[in-house]
Amino acid sequence: MARPEHISNEDIARWDTLIDNDTNIPSAIAKNAVVREVCYAGQWLSEELTKLKCKEEFIVRITYTMGQLSFGRDAWVVAQSMLDAFKANELEYEVELSELN
After folding, report:
1. 60-75 CB burial, b ≥16 within 10 A, e <16
2. pTM of the predicted model, to two decimals?
């Protein structure tokens, strides 16, 4: 799956700024075209989850998992699948040990 048509040049420019300024992504890695596309899909997924009023802690978990699942796969397909699963309430979350106390 290629990048969805609804993704605009403005979206890419906005995400480029976020990715380029993210201290968690080494710049050498962020310049890789495949990694960049995974990051774009993750930014899109994050924005869609925010629109659905998903809690920030779950957005972080979901987008991190999306990135991991994208290894060797089309990141846009994975991102859409994760969004669909969230909407259908099909995602399972691991309980953090700190939440048990």
Report:
1. ebbbeebbebbeeebb
2. 0.88
